[in-house]
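testing teh design pipeline on a random one, pls ignore if ur not involved
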């Protein structure tokens, strides 16, 4: 257990020093600022949640995941990493833990930033119930996207870099935007976060238990595949 905890702390520290992490956070804060001109708090939070259900989740979290795994190849540090007295499976898990930790930190920071912006211009319709509802909603959407980001780590290992997984993340965003509003969306894992956001009202094609199961399977296969790839292919 101690080697895993050590590996996790190292990966958390490495990602904290990454320009990709903070650049992604600055991009998120900038886009939230652009959508400040909403009539009330519910509309503002709804727009913020939608951004997390689409661009912030698929591209933002996807970029962080792709870079975390792909940089070891582009910086030629993977060989040094694999000779450490820590199993390759634990290294992969530690990277996932670091990604999950910092992505949730980004969500909390951006939500607090949205609150500060809303209060600064005096948006009407504030209530603690609304804040609680949308905070939990954004965290759930973020968790779904973190599961969907797992295959990007495997793609980064297979392609030995981060360009292919980033391209895949962009492709899934386009697929989600095109097929999400159709009946296919409920069976397209990358559409599930946005459809989950719409479950409270206007979703024409409500989600099924199968929809969430597909997201979970995508995440599980991505994690297992990455661990197995590092264990069996990298010598």
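output:
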């Amino acid at each position: 257990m101690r080697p895993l905890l050590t590996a996790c702390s190292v990966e958390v520290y490495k990602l904290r020093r990454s320009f990709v992490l903070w650049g992604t956070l600055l991009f998120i804060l900038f886009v939230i600022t652009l959508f400040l001109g909403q009539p009330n708090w519910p509309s503002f939070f709804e727009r913020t949640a939608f951004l997390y259900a689409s661009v912030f989740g698929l591209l933002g979290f996807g970029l962080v995941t792709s870079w975390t795994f792909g940089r070891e190849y582009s910086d030629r540090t993977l060989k040094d990493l694999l000779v450490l007295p820590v199993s390759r499976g634990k290294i992969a898990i530690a990277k996932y833990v670091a990604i999950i930790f910092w992505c949730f930190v980004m969500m909390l920071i951006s939500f607090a930033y949205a609150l500060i912006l809303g209060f600064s211009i005096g948006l009407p319709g504030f209530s603690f119930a609304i804040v609680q509802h949308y905070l939990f909603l954004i965290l759930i959407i973020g968790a779904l996207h973190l599961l969907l980001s797992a295959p990007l780590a495997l793609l980064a290992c297979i392609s030995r870099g981060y360009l292919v997984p980033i391209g895949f993340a962009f492709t899934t965003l386009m697929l989600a935007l095109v097929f999400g509003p159709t009946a296919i969306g409920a069976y397209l894992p990358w559409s599930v976060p946005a459809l989950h956001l719409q479950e409270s009202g206007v979703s024409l094609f409500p989600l099924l238990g199968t929809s969430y199961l597909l997201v979970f399977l995508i995440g599980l296969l991505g994690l297992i595949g990455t661990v197995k790839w590092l264990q069996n292919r990298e010598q």
